[in-house]
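Lecture 7, part B: from sequences to assemblies.

Below are the input chains for today's worked example.
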Amino acid sequence: MADIISTVEFNYSGELLATGDKGGRVVIFQREQESKNRPLSRGEYNVYSTFQSHEPEFDYLKSLEIEEKINKIRWLPQQNAAHFLLSTNDKTIKLWKISERDKRAEGYNLKDEDGRLRDPFRISTLRVPVLMPMDLMVEASPRRIFANAHTYHINSISVNSDHETYLSADDLRINLWHLEITDRSFNIVDIKPANMEELTEVITAAECHPHQCNVFVYSSSKGTIRLCDMRAAALCDRHSKFFEEPEDPSSRSFFSEIISSISDVKFSHSGRYMMTRDYLSVKVWDLNMENRPVETYQVHEYLRSKLCSLYENDCIFDKFECCWNGSDSAIMTGSYNNFFRMFDRNTRRDITLEASRENSKPRATLKPRKVCTGGKRKKDEISVDSLDFNKKILHTAWHPKENVIAVAATNNLYIFQDKMN
Amino acid sequence: ARRCASPAGDKMAGADGDDSLYPIAVLIDELRNEDVQLRLNSIKKLSTIALALGVERTRTELLPFLTDTIYDEDEVLLALAEQLGNFTMLVGGPEYVHCLLPPLESLATVEETVVRDKAVESLRKISHEHSPVDLEVHFEPLVKRLASGDWFTSRTSACGLFSVCYPRVSSTVKAEIRQHFRNLCSDDTPMVRRAAASKLGEFAKVLELEYVKSDIISLFTALASDEQDSVRLLAVEACVSIATLLPQEDLETLVMPTLRQAAEDKSWRVRYMVADKFSELQKAVGPEITKNDLVPAFQNLLKDCEAEVRAAAANKVKEFCENLPEDSRETIIMTHILPCVKCPEVRLNIISNLDCVNEVIGIRQLSQSLLPAIVELAEDAKWRVRLAIIEYMPLLAGQLGVEFFDEKLNSLCMAWLVDHVYAIREAATCNLTKLVEKFGAEWAQNTIVPKVLGMANDPNYLHRMTTLFCINALSEACGQEITTKHMLPVVLKMSNDQVANVRFNVAKSLQKIGPVLDSNCLQAEVKPVLEKLAADQDIDVKYFAQEAVSVLALA
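Predicted structure of the full complex, as structure tokens:
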């Protein structure tokens, strides 16, 4: 019984794909090795491991339930035969080890082969167990639990390029952890005002720079991004860079601030750019230019005139993620009606695709979709008012090296690959 | 249902087993028990199992089994790694010690640092039992395999093994080892580079000096400029070891540029490491370089923009000053160190080492530079800081002399007597006693006694009580004359105080100073007052008065 998927993430090689869901479960898919026997199944993803990462808890002090929903999964770089990932709910981060076992020990001293106990006096020789092959078993075990460091809901985790620390962010604070130490974390950003009534802005996402171990960014509900340098000081309350696009006064409305809230921030693989997602658009920023983004892509501009009803049904608060492809030449993000959008940064071409069972058969090529914004609706187009706002694609992931994408549509996971020649 | 052992039955069946193997059989089976405590127990008794199996079966059966079952809890793997380090005899002695390498190699790739480190430790241990031939045939290939392994964990473990196999292998193999180490120092992964950096000093120690200068220095410089902060800060530690290996004349060119760079690194964590290792660095580079380079560097660290760095440097001030060469110590402290220190606790630290300073620096200079610090500390908002300076006051007073004290510090000592924190008032009282012991009763009579007695009229009863406590403390040091002529009248007068606490403390004071007074005085003046207090309305006053009467034998 599949639950709503709440996060999707490929590992560093792309061999593994992890999903987390609202029920606190993690499902890991592994790509099949290409083989000559089955040329058409070029690297399909099959279930590799499933485990319960988080359980619901009750905070007795505040009389609140802590949801088991997995907010984020981040993989660690592979350090030996096993795989490690961090998974987090609102309050607790866990480090999981996923390892394979393909051997089993056989041969007991005190038991016969059929399990009957032997007479101690009949033991005339000692038997050392021998390892025999067995069917592959994939085990997941929790190796570390990082708890009690966040008063507010954790929205992001990010592994540092030093491979020994990671950061976790909630609405008002960002903490730095060492992967081996669970009883302590360092608070590096704290934007909680002395008087909570003065609160105007919260942290919405945070990420470590892919190569520079001292740099991280965090985005806010007011559409700003701050870049901090951990070398400069132990506390990073003062940012090194502040990214904000000046507001266009002509498009100001009651909803301006809400739709400017950044729901996701991702560095490019090169480390030179970062991408932010707000309600209606995706922006690419050059880290060297703080006063405006270098590229802006409209995801679903046709919703701008519908903001009022989207506010009433709370959809305006949906948090969409975005991702880069391996070479940073393309970006992808989700929309409504199970649509997702891909933008080619070089050609400036964009495409809308749909993740749904009705409209695509396995191995068929996806047909581009189009939303009709007014006037005469062409055949195959869909009108704005017919969009199903319950079918949201919030979580997407792109394979780090190949053109394989994973799209989570509510409780279904879709994996699409580039056309084969 | 378990079959019961039946000795009669066995004899009849001609069984040739006895149950002496049973406990060992249990141990072996429990290696795979679901309960981790049982597994752990079996692993800890691995030597028992090995003894029972004998050396050959241990080599051919037990060790292969252990090599492949590294799916276990950390504590079990840790215990296993430790056991194997002591297994040489159990596998048949040094000629077979290399059989222990496969399971330890497995353990050296585990992701848990503590297990890996123990495996490396055991490998280092048994490396000494390898003959030079076995080192080249078995041990060094293992190190090479780990060093070129796919997993980060194997490569990090390799870093800890170079120094033990290097000394005893041939020069061709030595060259290979040096190459492997070089590769790991520039590995793609920060984890491996960190391991290499942390073993750099240890490896340098076993290398021939020419290679230290040619190889190690360039590796050290590269690691000290690594893009990862976590690697650079480990290079600082290596700096200490390397500096001790090189002759003095090479330090300036080979090590100092890197160290200077580290002390000014953009990352506060690297600067913190420099501050933290400062005393070791000082010892390693020697007095000349300390004077020319380390003193300015230390000044900068004491004034660093990041508080963590300042604190680390402040922690090292005392040790740094103590280890300065005697001839220049005072000058360096007074002109370079003290002015950089703003934090009261640190200044206190320096002041506490003043006994070496006293002779050389004049009082004027001392008072100019130290008095502000002392006054600041004396009035610090944190009472523990005030307490600390009070405790230094007798020492300071002795060093600075009575005139300086009277002029500058007397008022401070009196102010402490009326501090709002009890612990300060108490310490201040004790301080006065020590001062009287230092400067003498006459000084006391002229300077502090009048002020103490003046507090007897203070509207605050706590201050009036302080007068009594001071008198308690000072009477013996001041002597009979001062006590009788000046202190006793005040005490007696306070027996009429409105506050009961004051009155019962009068009784206690009289009990305390009684032994200093002569018997006439006791009978004529003390006894009537105590009798009056014994009839007081307050029951505590009555109690202490009666006690004083009996202790002083005035009844």
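Note for the exam: Chain B is about 75% helix and 0% strand. Keep this in mind when comparing with the next example.
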